[in-house]
Structure formats: C-alpha cells, structure tokens
Amino acid sequence: QLADPAGVPELTRGDVEAWLDGYLPYALDNGDIAGAVVVVVKDGQVLLQKGYGYSDIEKRTPVDPAGTLFRPGSVSKLSTWTAVMQLVEQGKLDLDADVNQYLDFKIPSPDNKPMTLRQVMTHTTGLEEQIRGLITSRKEEIVPLGEALKRWVPERIHAPGATPAYSNYATALAGYIVQRVSGEPFDAYIQRHIFQPLGMAHSSFSQPLQPALLAKMSKGYTKASDAKAKDYEFISLAPAGSLASTGADMGRFMLAHLQDGAYGDARILNAATAQEMHTTGQKSVGALNRMMLGFYETTVNGHRAIAHGGDTMYFHSDLVLFLDDGIGIFVSMNSSGRDGATGIIRGNLVRGFADRYLPGPDDIYVS
Fold this sequence. Notes:
- By secondary structure, the protein is of the alpha+beta class.
- It has 10 helices and 13 strands.
- It has helices at residues 13-31, 77-89, 117-121, 145-151, 168-182, 186-198, 211-214, 247-258, 271-279, 341-357, and strands at 35-42, 45-56, 61-62, 69-70, 135-136, 234-235, 245-246, 262-263, 266-267, 296-297, 305-311, 316-322, 327-333.
- A hairpin with a 2-residue loop joins strand 8 and strand 9.
- The radius of gyration is 20 Å and the shape is globular.
- The model has no long low-confidence stretch (mean pLDDT 91).
C-alpha cells in the first residue's frame, strides 16, 4: 500500500510486519542471535509488537512480545530521567542546584563548580567512567545503591557542563537522589509512579527480580549456536541499567513520551515538562547531535528523533522516538552474536525503517 505517488509505503501494520519479516529472521540467523522483540507505535497506538526466534533455546520457547521479559540495559536510564523530571515539576528537585544538597555524602566540587542534575542528565558532569564490576551474575555481590555510590566516587576529569562523557555512576546518583527525596526505594518509586500508571505490569528494576517475572525472563546467550543460557545479570548501579521489561510494556512507555507524558487516562509528566525533557539540549557541542535531558538526539532523514540504546553482556537494545511523526520503535535482542552483529542489526533496522517510511524531502523510494 502506497502513501503517495512518490512511492513511499504507508506505515501500516501489514507493511511493517512484512518488511520486518523480510529482514530480521535472516539478520538474527546470520548474526547467531537466539531471539528478539520489536515494537512499533504510531499515532497513540501500538502498530505492531512481534517476537522473533527463541527466548529459551533448550525449551524451544518462542519470544512473546507481551510476555517475555528482556533486559534493555541503558534504555533503563529513560525511566530514571523521567522520575527526576517528575520530582522537578513537583518542585522537589532543581536541575541547576548542587546535587550535594540532596545527598548524605559529598561529591567534590573542584574550583567551587558544583555538579548539577542538568549536567547529570546531559552526561556533562565531567566524571571519569569505569565499567569493571558494573555487572555480576552473583546475587550476593549486589551492593545496595547508596553503598555502591559511596564506595567509589569518580574523579572529575573534564570541566562540568562542557565535555560530554557518558556516566553510569552519575545516572545511578540521580536514581539515589530520587530515592532520598521521594522517601521510597528507587525500584519501588519507579514501580509506583511510572510502571503502575502506564499499566507496565511486566516491568521491574528490582534485583533479584520477582519470581513471577523471572519465570517469564528470556535467557541470555553469547551466541545462539552455543545454546548455553547465561545467568541473570545483576547491576549494582541499578538506575543505570537494571530494568527487565517486555516489548509490550516498552511500547506503553514510548507512547507516553510521544504524547508528552500521557497514556490513556494516565499522565506521568505534565506536557510542558515532557517537552522540556525532549527539547532542552546540551549546548557545548555546537551543531552536532546533542544530549537532551536524558535522551540523545539522533535526527534521521531530516526527521527529528530522540533515542537511547542499551547493552548488557547478553542483551542489546535500542529505542527511537520520531517526535514530530508520532512514531516510536523499540528492539531488543537476547544474544551478543558474532562480530558485533547486534550493533549492525539495530542500526540497520532503524535506518532501514526510516528510509522506508520517513524519507527525507529529496529521497525517492524504489521498491
């Protein structure tokens, strides 16, 4: 079905399913990846949610987009940033205040330049980063959030507000601030104020994961051909990446952000707050794609987009929102695959989707 005489296909369930069916099974097989979930939303509705391959190779369990949980890795951060903005609009947090006023330990302020939540959300705190020990398969090695943050405070190696430098530590710090200011454990806060209003009944930051959800959790694999399921991954800096969620639940989250904080009768952000979150960019990089307040800018074919990717050891994901077009796409894979396959697959998926359904003004679609 064509949307106009130029030959651009209309984004319908039938067309996008046929396109995905023509790409993803081959890509997963070629990349040695056991399974994946894809969700496409458009104009306030889920257009398509579909599983590919297996969530458990040994049991030959197919991926269920509504029932199989994946680990979206750093896509988890979007929930943390949403929580921060909820407390900002309530007047409980100030994006430009010294974060130390919300903490029970001290973040150093070299040259009397304090760290702010605005810097945290745009990854311009200047903090050094390390990933050693970030993920463990041993439950007894999980460190409570506050303790993990106090055990090692990174050095400030860039001027604050100037140089983009991705920081899992700073994100976890924001989650700890949410916990302290709200008076609720971080995972409970997210459950109550984001997941429950949106009906995300199969999503959780809790570690260990609740048994009923763990029973629905996809296995993680190095390669599908190895067929050796890996242990559940625990992340001590939980706000930076410990989410477990289904594709269907991530669809609800996308719709809430595409609709400026509203989903059905629920609202997780005021419209003005959501728009501020989506459009306030970090300024020091000039004309390059910027960090918004938690999302990164990734305009495609002239279509404004905000996004976030995520990787654990075994799960690899991406979430992209085309704000002006009312379209979102989420993909998550449960294996690392061979030769960096997951990065290639998700990159080609988003690029191919945009080229097909959201071409630039000078692009000509050839079927």
